[in-house]
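lol forgot to send this yesterday, sorry. struct tokens for the thing we talked abt
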């Protein structure tokens, strides 16, 4: 693993390798890396997976089987910026499978990791100098689970 830059460590109870393989399957520009195992006289049985290095969408991660002491929550989430509704639909479908839909484009995957599946265009709409447009977009978004880009565009244009 490269020692420069940032690597995000994701703490799992005992599903680190499974999760890493899942994320590599969801995102392009992804690959599984080195897998380390617990040695003798460690907190987990010798040979049990300790860490899995992986890259998802070009970002470096380490999945750690650290035990049940810590779990994921919405205080940290990963944003997936999408160009099209098709991308939104694809990521939403894959990540909510055995997971949980949330409001406003947020979801939890099957491992409890929080994601935001967001159209890039949404940021442009929120930055528009016309505050009324941004307010309409925000109001429309608040009623959604998976974000609907066409509906957000209609709200932005006030063509509902």
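and heres what i got for the seq, position by position
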């Amino acid at each position: 693993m490269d020692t420069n830059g940032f690597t995000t460590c994701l703490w799992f109870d005992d599903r680190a390798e499974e999760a890493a393989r899942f994320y590599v399957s969801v995102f392009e520009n992804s690959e599984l890396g080195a897998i380390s195992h617990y040695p003798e006289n460690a907190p987990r049985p010798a040979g049990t997976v300790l860490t899995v290095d992986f890259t998802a969408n070009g970002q470096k991660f380490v999945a750690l089987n650290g035990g049940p002491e810590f779990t994921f929550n919405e205080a940290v989430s990963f944003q997936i910026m999408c160009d099209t509704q098709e991308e939104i639909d694809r990521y939403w479908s894959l990540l909510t499978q055995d997971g949980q839909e949330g409001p406003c484009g947020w979801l939890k995957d099957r491992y409890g990791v929080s994601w935001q599946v967001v159209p890039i265009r949404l940021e442009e709409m929120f930055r528009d100098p016309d505050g009324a447009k941004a307010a309409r977009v925000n109001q429309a978004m608040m009623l959604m689970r998976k974000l609907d880009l066409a509906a957000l565009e209609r709200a932005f244009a006030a063509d509902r």
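The chain has two domains: 8-65, 77-157. anyway ping me if u want another try
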